Amino acid sequence: MIKNDILLRAARGETTERTPVWMMRQAGRILPEYRVVRAKAKNFVEFVKNSELAAEVTIQPVNILGVDAAIIFSDILVIPEAMGLPYEMVEARGPLFRTTVATMADVQKLNIATENELSYVTDAIRLVKKELDGSVPLIGFAGAPWTILAYMVEGSGSKTFSKAKGFLYTQPLVAHALLEKITTSTILYLKAQIAAGADIVQLFDSWAGILSGPMYFEFALPYIDKICEAITEVPITVFAKDAHYLPAQLQHIKCDVVGLDWTMHPQRVRDLLPHKTLQGNLDPCVLYGDEKTIIHHTHQMLQAFGSKRYIANLGHGLYPDIDKEKAKLFVDIVKEYKHNA
Ligand code: CP3
What we know:
The protein is an alpha/beta fold. Helices cover about 45% and strands about 10% of the residues. The chain has helices spanning about 5-10, 30-40, 45-50, 50-65, 80-85, 105-110, 120-130, 145-155, 160-170, 170-195, 215-220, 220-230, 245-250, 265-270, 290-305, 325-335, and strands spanning about 70, 85-90, 95, 140-145, 200-205, 235-240, 255-260, 275-280, 310-315. Helix 2 (about 30-40) packs antiparallel against helix 4 (about 50-65), helix 4 (about 50-65) packs parallel to helix 7 (about 120-130) and helix 8 (about 145-155) packs across helix 10 (about 170-195). The longest helix has 25 residues, at about 170-195. It starts with 5 loop residues before the first helix and ends in a 5-residue tail after the last helix. It binds coproporphyrinogen III. The site of coproporphyrinogen III has 21 residues, from strand 3.
């Protein structure tokens, strides 16, 4: 039994007394309390693998910011690692893979990730569930297959991901073989998260928007479709950043919630997807503004989405230099807002 299950009810399309709210990257560097715990680990990868520390920072934003859900502290890159491609997190630069995927032989060498390699995540989930004691739901997550492929082929972050995109054109069969393996791993991983206690799961397709519509429909959406078909136990959210051609197609996908970034038009997506719950989409940069600015833009967003089938969030993750008090202000504004009947 979850005491505050407002987010789950919104995800299932039930009426809620107010709009639920959480923030992508709510567990992170904006919280001084996070930085204290983070300093106890040798590096980011070790931090993620330490279930006790991961559980501790997962719960922090629930207590400090008052959000309506916790999201398990981990990273989307644990899947490549479990498949056999280890990653590092280079300070101020981001992810780095010393080995990348280029050929069919490389794909054949990769494992299907199982719960064994990822038990540190399911252990952290069990610790969090115990600690939360039913106060709010826990969100599990994974990267969407295309975004995971992008890192495995590119080897790092990139403005263009031209190497990863080029790979789709030069080696489409290898790309599909890799996407299949990532998809199988991701389904097993999400099911393990759910068995450990995740109440809802989210797929992050952070690099969706760099593909053209036709390429997305060939190399990304079919795998998201497979995952959504397989996850029947709890609601599932698809967040495909900057994918303007996508909402019209998502009506055919078995997801419950659709995440939107700030470039998406709430009412237009609502018209296309009347049977999905929408989540988003405040530009995190609004939180650099003063109180009046934050109230104005948050109210504008709440009005645009309306009171039904809606979960308030940012359009992407919090930036590390955002003031924690401003993030809390955003949460408070949403929680206090009364929609006109
Ligand atoms: O609070 C939460 O949202 C949960 C934690 C979470 C992290 N990563 C922790 C993290 C989540 C949901 C992610 C997902 C993730 N990781 C995505 C998808 C979401 C998105 O932002 O588009 C992506 C693309 C990654 C890959 C990744 N991890 C990058 C590009 C970076 C470097 C960027 C940066 O801010 O430095 C990371 C590192 C990372 N993952 C940090 C955190 C808190 C920062 C590193 C640190 O704290 O030392």
